[in-house]
Amino acid sequence: TGVPKVAFSASLSQTYGPFNTAVTLVYKNVFTNIGNCYNPTTGIFVARVKGVYYFSYTAKKLSAVVMDVYLYKNGQPILDVYDSSSQDTSDNGSNSAVLQLEEVDQVYIRLRANTQIFDNSENYSTFNGFLLFPV
């Protein structure tokens, strides 16, 4: 008791890109948002508890356009999922990390300029996170 509960899981539910600038992805289809730290309007997770968190994301490519999707912490890129254009236009990728966050730190996913990420009602492209323990 007394341990904060923070967990979220959401999917894009639509294809994004390509755009001529990088954009923060907004995962609007929210499955779980315990603690309300994930904002489905902005696509940004804001830590309300200082602690160690686990984040993961999946990305699907379904075109000849390059897919390049980064996880950011406070404006700094941490992880990448990348797939170049090729004859094989259908590919999936994923990445994950354990991050120590201070209260109000932000974590989000950005699509690089001139790239694309695919999703539909099957929820191929997701963003997930939860608090492992407070510190």
From TrEMBL:
SUPFAM superfamilies: TNF-like. It is found in: Secreted. The keyword Protein biosynthesis does not apply. Residues 1-135 form the C1q domain. Keywords: Secreted, Signal. The keyword Secreted applies. Gene3D superfamilies: 2.60.120.40. This is Complement C1q-like protein 4.
